[in-house]
Amino acid sequence: MTFYLLLLTLYIWPFGQLLSFSTTVFPFTIYLLDVAVFFLFVSLVLSKKRAEIFNTPITKPLLMFLGVVILSFLFNIKQGIASGLPLSFFYLFRLIIYPSLFFAISFVDKNRLIKPITISIGIFLFLSLVQYLSFPDMRFLKSLGFDDHYYRLIGSFYDPNFTGAILAGLSLYFIGKNKIIYSIPLITLLSLTFSRASYLAFAVGLIILLLTRKKIKLILLVALLGVIVYLIPKPFGEGVNLFRTFSIYSRIESWQSGLNLFIDKPILGWGYNTLRNAEGGRFQVDNSFIFLLATTGLVGFFAFMNLLIKIYRQAKDREMLLIPTTILIHSLFNNSLFFIWISAVFWFAAGLSIKAKEYKSI
Predict the structure, then answer these.
(1) Residues 357, 109: Cα–Cα separation, whole Å
(2) Which domain holds residue 213?
(3) Nearest alpha-carbon partner for 262 in 297, 304, 301, 302
(4) What does pTM read for this prediction?
(5) Residue 360 covered by a domain
(6) Contacts for 106 with CB less than 8 Å, ≥ 6 apart
């Protein structure tokens, strides 16, 4: 059952925001990815092999981190009530269930996942390309609460930055595996996002590969990205202007706001996702690490860093680890790590990179 739920998650993931619905029962949007991951979580908890499944090198660090997050939430329960308790609890529950992807993968033969992963990535790339070629003007989404994008590849995530993060990570993975021919189409799609954070994450990842592999020629791939960006059509609009400054100042302002909140409550923060404005909009911090400092304080931040250290120390597949690395770099400029489709990729890739156990059937 768990294996098939894992497959279901893989096949739902590439459709992003397209598979969502709202009801009057819940004060938030429901995504089918959340539903699939929830049932995956339940299947692991109820499994007869759960003691073995959850016996991994990262279990204790993960439980420590989640324990701190829950404690912070309870300490700030009044803030949570004021922000809308069901919504705040929903985001907290998401944080708890998404690592299920890591634990499930520890007990699945990687060879059984190659075809489903290929199909999933293929659907993601196809939808992204169709969106750019057929629906380049996505400014109508602004009425639904999304940013307005014009001639940018935003894909099924409805966001060029998050889509770019995945494209950058996949490109680096194939480059790390010496399959550069597979990375070129991904680099081309990456260029169409006009996401500077994604470009930077890709460049930093290449530098890491350059330093570890000592292959200077890899720097040519950064040049390739630059050439493609230079050559592709750029209709009038601020979104395709790589020298735009509004988003830079907006990010800096959000970082300052997040750090000010952290200074006010430096130990346990304000509670995970309890900060919402009077209209119910989520408080935005364009940096996942500052977001953690503001919402869980120093205790939560260091617990999370301890978790990351454990993941990196246990990793066996260093090329697969390039995907979480790209996400973490990208998270310095956007709150990428806690965007559910990127969070899913992070835990999935982390599980594949560690391979701490002999694969077993579940």
Answers:
(1) 10
(2) 2-354
(3) 297
(4) 0.91
(5) no
(6) 53, 56, 351, 354, 355, 356, 357
